[in-house]
Known about the structure:
The chain is an alpha+beta fold. It is built from 16 helices and 16 strands.
Amino acid sequence: xxxxxxxxxxxxxxxxxxxxxxxxxxxxxxxxxxxxxxxxxxxxxxxxxxxxxxxxxxxxxxxxxxxxxxxxxxxxxxxxxxxxxxxxxxxxxxxxxxxxxxxxxxxxxxxxxxxxxxxxxxxxxxxxxxxxxxxxxxxxxxxxxxxxxxxxxxxxxxxxxxxxxxxxxxxxxxxxxxxxxxxxxxxxxxxxxxxxxxxxxxxxxxxxxxxxxxxxxxxxxxxxxxxxxxxxxxxxxxxxxxxxxxxxxxxxxxxxxxxxxxxxxxxxxxxxxxxxxxxxxxxxxxxxxxxxxxxxxxxxxxxxxxxxxxxxxxxxxxxxxxxxxxxxxxxxxxxxxxxxxxxxxxxxxxxxxxxxxxxxxxxxxxxxxxxxxxxxxxxxxxxxxxxxxxxxxxxxxxxxxxxxxxxxxxxxxxxxxxxxxxxxxxxxxxxxxxxxxxxxxxxxxxxxxxxxxxxxxxxxxxxxxxxx
Length: 468
């Protein structure tokens, strides 16, 4: 697996062992020929190929799917604004490139194995919750067909999927359950719950902190119930001391920046400088500054007085609002309909969303998957490109699982980098007209990778299957 441009297909193919296993005319490996082949593949064909691909993956690895993780991301493209496309649309880009068109990707991952189970491609201007609603029937229908899916299936999502219709659908299907997050902005009283009501939870993160002697940084949780989306749900508020410290530091730094700017504004008003004589205009400047800093404008209260000698300005920090904001730092809200689950199990499942986020990070790694930059200008090519990228993500995870089964804990990135350094040579013996192909002696780490896949390099430099 290596992300290269279509024009570099021939040089990449020549540098791999594939040319030895399946030799071809390298001159035929052009971008033109590449797309001639892909032009034969319709959207319907891609769906069929995807189905067969995942069915084969499930046969090989039989992932458990009683708890699955779903998330979305988007990939920007440099496609021109006038180029016709149903997929490439402008929207809220997660990398801040809002001026570029983008394509959305939804990915469902098995929680235990981190193997992709399903993916979907959608227009970049569709909100996550709307897309989630449109694919629930298809996505969960596929997952429920897996051999290891239990009668009870829980999907872990984030607050971007929250919508009344989505949870109504889940409530109507007794087999389906959810764990989601909820914005503290819409539940400020809950987020401001005093820390005396919180207690540590038995999760892997806390156990590691205890081993490191950092008990004071343990994740704490407070459990209650509340009505959300028309039904009573279990609600858990978590508190992370480390996150609290970071947020408080940033918040106090911004407060000081605003205070210094207000002092400067007050001086300009007092000196009756131009453009500083209109109360509404000054308030507008202040509000705009707060918006740019992602701060509430009511964090400081501005007061203006009109006297004989002109306008005067004063300001005061809103101490109540500051304290309330501080009490919410480090807090996250988790909501679930798994009322019988232990608090630690709910928190751990929600935290495990990093597994699907990790797949997205891998997809943006130029050396591994390389979704971006997306140099495709038609929807059919974009769909083909994203399928091959999801397939690459799946293969990379299978490599990690294969190694884990052999007791080797390494990342796919590390393994790919290591194995690319294992070279083969051509040896011409005296008197022979035909060269022999030999593999150089593998390093210790390369040998353990080969062993995990049931292979070894013998003393003659030949790759052999390990006898069982």
